[in-house]
Amino acid sequence: MQPTGSDASGSMIVLDRVRKQYADGTVAVNELSLDVAAGQIAVLVGPSGCGKTTTMRMINRLVEPSSGRIYLDGDDIGTVDRVQLRRRIGYVIQQVGLFPHQTVADNIATVPQLLGWDKKRTRSRVSELLDLVGLEADRHAKRYPHELSGGQRQRVGVARALAADPPVLLMDEPFGAVDPIARDRLQSEFLRLQQQVRKTIVFVTHDIDEAIRLGDRIAVMREGGHLEQYADPGTLLSEPATDFVADFVGSDRTLRRLSVLHVRPDGLTEWPRGSSAPGPTAGEAFDAADADWLLAGDGPWQWQRRGASDRVPAATVEIGTTLADALAAHLAHDGPGVVVVEDGVYRGVLTGPQLLSNARRT
Fold it and tell me: Which of 167, 169, 273, 292 has a beta carbon 3.0–4.6 Å from 90's, enabling a disulfide?
């Protein structure tokens, strides 16, 4: 097969029965076939020795496959000049690999300078990219790598990979060497960035939670480079294809599934409303509503319980919030559920039982 397809930012990648076997007989990747649509993030995940990094390195021909074909926008990369190929691909690794004796600006400008860009164009691109990755050019451009935090160095690494605007990014555990708080922030920043640049990204990690958070599709691999399942996060969590996948994603996959599902406008409960004015509980209102809780207020919302004279703040979430965040908000507040709004306008209530049942929906 020789598929084609691209968009304004990313390029389609197709691996067709790719195999990598070394001289000692070790098989690193075994008959791997998968495709990455233009502008999507494909995450390769699995235990050490499953061929994740080897697969990624074959895409930019740092490693040559023993057999099979890899296509980039329909071009068989085995027939493309390596230098020309790598100009179409940005590469980000865990240890970043910034040149220690060059400034941040000079590090980012590495590829544009190799391509012969003039100084004005290069400076403009460096400034643009620093802004894109959330670093102020005036503050950071003239600093050196040792003057930056681990998270800042990773941001510079991403900026450098994007410098010549390649359609494809390869990212090998780019956030693995930073602390958990910085990692969470980098993941959020990465998703924000992808919304703007829409590159085709192959992302390697050993962390299933990171894969679920970042990936449009996830390839679960096992030792010997075997592909066990390639699916979107929701399908992977609700319908693991093999026992290996089920064990890898964990017995708590139902809870993990909450992080890839979102509050929707359909299926909400129209909750009985009480008086917006504070005051003692009106038994008649509860009897008329046949409810133990009434919803009061008009933002901020409050719950009033039968038999109580005071009210408690209600958890409020927007349409599109993950069910994991909605459940966390519910558990942090009293009341029968979370109030759902859209642009601040009341849409209904998502109850605790609904939150749990939604984790199992297909």
Answer: 169
Same domain, 178 and 238: yes
What's the DSSP call for residue 146?
A: G
Task: Please say if the pLDDT value at position 258 is more than 90.
Answer: no
- The whole-number pLDDT of residue 4 equals 39
pLDDT at 1 over 80: no
pLDDT at 281 over 60: no
If one counts the domains in the chain, the total is 2
Mean pLDDT over 211-239 rounds to: 93
Question: How wide is the angle at C-alpha 341 spanned by C-alphas 335 and 344, nearest 5°?
Answer: 120
Pick from 45, 49, 68: nearest CA to 224: 49
- Token pair recorded at residue 325: 């965040």
Report how far residue 28's alpha carbon sits from residue 175's, in angstroms, rounded to the nearest whole number.
24
Give yes or no: residues 69 and 190 share one domain. yes
Above 80 in pLDDT, residue 146?
yes
Output phi, psi for 47, to 5 deg: -70, 170
CATH classification at residue 338? 3.10.580.10
Residue 21 belongs to what domain range?
A: 13-88+166-257
- Is the domain of 253 the same as that of 293? no
* pLDDT at site 329: 92
Q: Checking DSSP bridges between strand 41-45 and strand 27-36, what pairing results, if any?
A: unpaired
- What average pLDDT does this structure show over 247-273? 83
pLDDT of residue 178: 75
How would you label 328-343 residue by residue, b for 16+ Cβ within 10 Å and e otherwise?
A: bbbeebebbbbbbbee
Q: Cβ distance 2 to 76 under 8 Å?
A: yes
Cα torsion through 160, 166, 167, 173, rounded to 10: -30
CATH number at residue 22: 3.40.50.300
